[in-house]
Amino acid sequence: MSIASSRTTFTTPQRKTFSMCQHQPPCPSADSTDREAAQLVAHHPEQGWSLLCNGVLLFEDTGELLPDGQVIAPHRPVDPPRVTAAA
Ligand SMILES: [Zn+2]
Questions:
Q1: Which contacts (CB < 8 Å, 24+ apart) does range 13-17 have?
Q2: Are the C-beta atoms of 43 and 75 separated by less than 8 Å?
Q3: pLDDT higher for 16 or 70?
Q4: 28 Cα: distance to centroid of ligand 1 (angstroms)
Q5: What distance in angstroms lies between residue 84's CA and the mean position of ligand 1's atoms?
Q6: How far does residue 71's CA lie from ligand 1's centre (Å)?
Q7: The whole model's pTM is what?
């Protein structure tokens, strides 16, 4: 039995260009460090992802998939941070 646990198995509509932002102020581009501030254009909590105006797919674990296929690892802890007093 194969395990299809990859987050690449979800299906999305064909995404062409996302340079058509009509928001004011304009959304940050996908290569901006501010990319998560873009407006949501699709939200699929049941699948655990959201599509931002700049074409970035934002996963509920804070991972991201950029329009050029680049994957950004989750950068915010899902679990409460466990403070280890090591000393
Ligand atoms: Zn926009």
A1: 15/55, 15/67
A2: no
A3: 70
A4: 8
A5: 41
A6: 21
A7: 0.65
